[in-house]
Amino acid sequence: MVSTEGEEIIVLGSSDIDIHMISDLFHRNSKIYTAIIIGECEIHYQGRASSKAPLGTRIVIYKSDGSLLVHEGKDRDPLNWQPPGSLCISDADKGFLEIRCRSRKYGHEIVSIRFKRILTAIWCRLSTKGLEVHGTEKDLVEMIYMNPSVISPSAKVIGREVETPSGKIDLILRDDPGNIYVVEVKNEKAGISAVNQLDRYVKYLESMQSRSPDVTRRIIGVLVSNGITRRAREALIERGYIYIDSMSLKIGNTSQTLMKYVK
Amino acid sequence: MVSTEGEEIIVLGSSDIDIHMISDLFHRNSKIYTAIIIGECEIHYQGRASSKAPLGTRIVIYKSDGSLLVHEGKDRDPLNWQPPGSLCISDADKGFLEIRCRSRKYGHEIVSIRFKRILTAIWCRLSTKGLEVHGTEKDLVEMIYMNPSVISPSAKVIGREVETPSGKIDLILRDDPGNIYVVEVKNEKAGISAVNQLDRYVKYLESMQSRSPDVTRRIIGVLVSNGITRRAREALIERGYIYIDSMSLKIGNTSQTLMKYVK
DNA sequence: CGTGCCAGGTGCCCT
DNA sequence: AGGGCACTTGGCACG
Q: Which end of chain A is more exposed for a tag (fewer CB within 10 A), N or C?
């Protein structure tokens, strides 16, 4: 058994493996420590869907927040998992370590891991700091919100995160001629669904407008995204909407306007 | 240094830590072995977005398929990562281990991990078997495809995965009276977007039909899903479409029909 | 807590 | 390789 500096980390090598000890550590440490067990195991999952993984060598991680991950030697995503807040019970019966993990969020979900052989088992305290990501869609919306003239020189923001029956509209602008801009922002390459989404918003505003026909304004759909697929662009053009590549905004070209598109 | 059975696994405890050795093993083993390093590190990410993680204790996993994961003590998803096929370069300069990982898929993406302290480092061969998941949407579509009478007693399948400008229609059925059923299947709880999607398909088929007005059939939107949100249900009803809970199908109640909804 | 929706989404399958 | 889409999506923010 290899142990370091006041149980900051506990590492059990293959020569130290005792499944009763592991099972014991597993239960005792789970509130504070993250457990990492590497070994040959079979996995059964039953819940929203179901799966069965044959015997294979995998990494099992049980975090102190109650999330369970089972990783193989490929892919970013775990082979099997259980969401945060799940409860694992380990069991050393019949000479094999078995871990059963129940989800709290999805009451009926269960992952069972049966180890045929354990190569190493580790307990350690990991940080839970998280991080801030920049350059996200929210930032892009914020940028346009602070500088709506990138859409049209005289445009002012008249709405943000506006609720509709079909979803929330990122931004609504109005320029001096009275045109209304419905702006949908995607931080990624826009596909058909983005155009559909924008279309819904425009249609909704048009239907609202038709209920009070005293003021009738032109409603212009604007899609701001980091690229657009061919079919999406076709659908956008067919509906008479406008596409703006987000890169042309990000590089600070704030003088670029949409006036050339508006007759 | 703890090593077992012909390098099936290599475990370096804190007393064995030599960052030059680790850097060396990191480069030498990356094609076959998955590397797991636990220690205090700072992380910088720059790519589609950007992030910076302060000093914290984390697990770094570099899989043999070239995917990189950095996990903290919470959440199912990694704090930082790099997709499969990425290339990591480790560096032991200035007394600190630094790992830089570049994505092939997103050429400009880079994750840099700078270790202040390493608690343990492990190399092992993991399986890459994957698994088959059952109970997915595809299974549900297949089930209805094989047994369309669950939608309407006389219904026959006349289309599957039918391409439209707004996306693919899961199933199209026709019953003896000539009604057309546009079936959208969701394996999860359906929200507004699902209703919008269904609405698009129906509208599209209606527009197709209006082009050839010799045959005019009633087109009925059907949403099959595992639950539905309140607003989605309202929108569905307002448009005159039909909701079927997928559970009522899964439990084998194949005699249940929709005739009560069809006038 | 339900609902809606973005995500550095990822992974799969199709053309 | 690009596109469309499901996912045991996860995670967050808001009513």
A: C
End-to-end Cα spacing for chain B: 77
Give the model's confidence band at B154: pLDDT under 50 very low, under 70 low, under 90 confident, else very high. very high
Closest nucleotide to B193, Cα to C1': C4
* CATH number belonging to the domain at B2-124, selected among 2.70.180.20, 3.20.20.150, 3.40.50.300, 2.70.40.10: 2.70.180.20
Which percentage of chain A shows pLDDT scores above 70? Answer: 92
Residues 223-242 of B with CB under 8 A from A: 231, 235
How far is B155 from chain A, CA to nearest CA, in Å?
28
Q: Specify whether the CB–CB gap between B165 and A229 falls below 8 A.
A: no
Q: Which residue's CA lies closest to nucleotide C14 at its C1' atom?
A: B161
In CATH, the number for domain B137-257 is 3.40.1350.10
How does pLDDT run across B188-245, given as a tens digit for each residue?
Answer: 999 999 999 999 999 999 998 887 767 778 999 999 999 999 999 999 999 999 999 9
Closest-approach residue (CA) in chain A for B11: A13
At A102-118, the pLDDT tens digits run 999 888 899 999 999 99
Q: Please report the number of interchain residue pairs, chain A to chain B, with beta-carbon separation below 8 angstroms.
A: 213
| Residue from A212, A207, A222 nearest A164 by CA | A207
A137-261 maps to which CATH number?
Answer: 3.40.1350.10
**List of long-range contacts for B134-140, beta carbons under 8 Å, 24+ apart:** B134/A49, B134/A50, B134/A51, B135/A48, B135/A49, B135/A50, B135/B187, B136/A49, B136/B187, B137/B185, B137/B186, B137/B187, B140/B185, B140/B187, B140/B224, B140/B246, B140/B249, B140/B250
Determine, for residues A56 and B126 on separate chains, whether the beta-carbon distance falls below 8 Å: yes
Residue of B nearest to A43 (CA): B131
d(CA B46, CA B108): 8
Is B13:B120 a contact under the CB 8 Å cutoff?
yes
Residue A131 to residue B193, Cβ atoms within 8 A:
no
